[in-house]
Amino acid sequence: MPEQHPLDFPYLTRRLPPGQHDDGLTLPRAGGAGFASMPPEPRLYPAPGFGVLPQLTERDAVVRLNPRQSAIGSLFVTGSRGTAWEDNMRVTGAQSVHREQIGTILQTAGGRPLVGYVNRDAVVALRHVRELRRALFIAGSGALAVQTYDGSTAAVAGSLAQGQRTVLTLLRIGSVLELRAESVPGEWDDGEIWREFGFTMTIGLVRRR
Amino acid sequence: MGTLGAGESVALTGQDPALTGVMVAMGWTVESAMGPQPEPVPLAILCGDDGRALTPEHLVFFNQLTTASPGVAFAAPDSGAAAAGRPADAEQVDVDFSQVPPDVARIAFVTYIDPEVRGSGSFARVEGLHLRVVRPDGSELVRFDASPANPEEAQAVVCGELYRYEDGWAFRALGRTYENGLAGVGAEFGLDV
Hints:
The structure holds two protein chains of two kinds. Chain A has helices spanning 33-36, 190-196, and strands at residues 55-56, 62-64, 74-78, 80-87, 92-96, 101-103, 105-107, 115-118, 121-125, 132-139, 144-147, 153-156, 164-173, 176-185, 206-208. Residues 1-21 and 25-34 of chain A have low confidence and may be disordered. In chain A, the strands form three sheets. Chain A has a seven-stranded antiparallel β-sheet with strand order 2-14-13-10-4-5-6, with helices on one face. In chain A, strands 1-12-11-3-9-8 form a six-stranded mixed β-sheet, with no helix packed on it. Chain A has a two-stranded parallel sheet with strand order 7-15. By secondary structure, chain A is mainly beta. Chain A has two domains: 1-43, no CATH class; 49-208, no CATH class. Chain B has a single domain, classed as Lipoxygenase-1, CATH 2.60.60. Chain B has two helices and twelve strands; from the N terminus they run E-E-H-E-E-E-E-E-E-E-E-E-E-H. The longest helix of chain B has 9 residues, at 181-189. Chain B is globular and about 50 Å long. The A-B interface holds A 66-68, 70-74, 76, 109-112, 118, 123, 125-127, 129-130, 149-150, 175 and B 34-39, 41, 57, 59, 61-65, 114-118, 182, 191-193.
């Protein structure tokens, strides 16, 4: 059996250098090429499918979209005050619901931002999901709701505990997207939240593909 | 075998009994313009005798490269085609006849416009939609020009299908369009999209 890194969990550590292939789960390791070349999906722990749980809670905080839900049309997140994104090349950016922007806009080949606001909804252009590494959606004053093209939905309260604010994280693991409801102190501004999740905004240019 | 018209078919293994598989390639060009572009997406659906998908998961496309049924796999396009003087296809699906399970009676090849909320959801700015059936060595068996007659309304096209014929496989050109896009395709084939 190839050696597995003891911290092989996407939320705990990120060690791939920029430009290296990233399936969202695999860390580089000496002699582990065979393991790393395996698709990551069979190695995932079980999680409810998207659309199975009507609501994410502190106890049931994770759902996983199937490959069709992860790649067709638009992923809508309603109720967020801001979003941040990171692509496979570690290019990052953020936008508020009021269209204040920082970092780099990721412009897809189809002429749409990979992640951005449409009216008051944060939208991910799923035709280009393979370019996305992860995204954050910061709850506003109310609940967050997520919807995919097949009509599946899930909601999460804007605060999962007293004095807390919900941050919905979106992580691509191979061909599937995973949504996780996390909490941060309610008074934190967006900059503190980005730092908490390891986001450092890259230079503010439009990246075209 | 040449170029087919809509509704015409050809017995692939009937004409070439040594044929062990094919590559089905689809391509197009998008008229450039400012703003959001239409984004065609090829899809192959593995169907039973009733013409519906074996399960809602029996399809291959760019984000689901294989299914539980072997023998059909989404493949990276031939990036060196244009430089080598070969037709440049956008996407390809490999079919290994010997690996396709008996419960797969036909394989439908669809191109849909990605239903992104920011629009351009029809074939109005898509030109030259085509499907080619190619031998494993790259030589072309048959071609079908599948551009819809109603591009302003069409949002998905079933370009053609491979189907079992006698003891082998045949291909039929279809060119059937859907004004309700992938939702219409999903309803007809029983997909969970």
